[in-house]
Amino acid sequence: MAKNKIAFTPIEDRVLIEPATAETVSAAGIFLPNSASETPLRGEVLAVGAGALNKDGVRAELPVKVGDHVVYAKFSGSKIEVGGCEFLIVRANEILAVINSK
To answer: Residue 33: pLDDT band by 50, 70, 90 thresholds?
Structure first.
């Protein structure tokens, strides 16, 4: 993980996500080739913006915080590469759920 190595601040209601790595072994222990593995639609929030301004000039609070594990929409966001690591920048409304692991 490169989360300690980058200084990145998204603007407005954008969120920086480190996508989870694709599974290379099935639940039954079978190794999956790259062509068979599907890119997961989940990741960890590394940075959040300040929130979008509403019509009254007040910043809307974002529904996620740094460290949350989230699920995002399939074709959402923009992929970027920083320091050899790939990240995703999405708008807060493209995040579908926060994963609660207890």
So the answer is: low
The number of domains in the chain is 1
- Write out the two tokens for 6: 């980058």
CA distance 23 to 42: 12
d(CA 51, CA 35): 38
Alpha helices in 1-102 (DSSP H): none
Assigned domain for 28 exists: no
29 is a domain residue = no
Contacts (Cβ under 8 Å, ≥6 apart) of 22: 37, 38, 39, 40
Q: Is residue 71 part of a domain?
A: yes
pTM of the model: 0.77
The torsion of the CA quartet 78, 79, 80, 84, rounded to 10 degrees, works out to: 170
Q: Residue 85: which H helix or E strand, with range?
A: strand 85-91
Neighbours of 13 (CB within 10 A): 21
